[in-house]
Write a structure and sequence with these properties.
Blueprint (H helix, E strand, L loop, with lengths): L4 E5 L7 E4 L9 E9 L6 E7 L7 E7 L2 E6 L2 E6 L8 E8 L4 E6 L2 E2 L3 E2 L11 E4 L18 E9 L5 H9 L15 E4 L2 E5 L4
Antiparallel strand pairs: 1-13, 1-15, 2-12, 2-14, 3-8, 3-13, 4-5, 4-12, 5-6, 6-7, 8-9, 9-10, 9-11
């Protein structure tokens, strides 16, 4: 249970990452990924990387520069532009549904205009799921200049789209439905220079 805890990635650039173990036994036709990050990086970095043997960017939440997020599904991506911040925690949720190909992107509890991506696609199961690095091969192939440095918290992955109420609940840190990956019941391994610490501020 990582309630009120954070992963601190201390080095820049870094070879550190956190390996997550999810209960995803079958392909995903819908998903929602949420997390909170705190960093002063201005270079590109990866937040959440879900790779299969067939596709290294099966699901990828990537920040190529300040004020821009990319969501990849099956190797293709859409871009969401966000206000560039006050060096504060940023909470993002991204969801996708295969039937319509619609992606939702929520930034600090507010929805952005929806975009279309990979209609009819299925996200493969048996994935390597990493925080802090972008996989260019299954479970590896890291570029240190796409690594994350800073603090990560409140990571979740669901095999469904969340309702607007639940998207806002995720931002507020309220009770959430059962998830494939849940911050309060997370199965993980840290690799390299990453430590679990108490959160300094809300």
């Amino acid at each position: 249970d990582l309630y009120r805890k954070v992963f601190v990635f201390r080095k820049d650039p870094s070879d550190a990452y956190v390996l997550l173990k999810a209960q995803a036994e079958r392909p995903l036709h819908n998903f929602t990924v949420c997390l909170r990050s705190y960093t002063d990086l201005t270079r590109p970095y990866s937040l959440f990387s879900y790779a299969t043997k067939a596709q290294d960017n099966e699901i990828l939440l990537f920040k190529p520069k300040p004020g821009e997020y990319r969501l990849y599904v099956g190797g293709k991506f859409v871009t969401f532009r966000t206000p560039e911040g006050r060096w504060d925690w940023e909470h993002v949720c991204a969801s996708w549904e295969s039937a319509t190909g619609l992606t939702e992107f929520w930034f600090n509890g507010k929805p952005w205009p929806r975009k279309g991506l990979q209609k009819g696609y299925a996200v493969g199961a048996e994935a390597a799921i990493l925080l802090g690095q972008e996989q260019d091969a299954y479970g590896g192939g890291f570029d240190p200049y796409n690594s994350f440095t800073g603090e990560l918290a409140d990571v979740h992955l669901w095999d469904a789209g969340l309702s607007p109420e639940k998207m806002r609940a995720a931002y507020q840190g309220l009770r959430l439905p059962p998830a494939l990956l849940a911050w309060k019941n997370l199965s993980y391994e840290t690799r390299g220079d990453v430590v679990v610490k108490n959160r300094l501020r809300e």
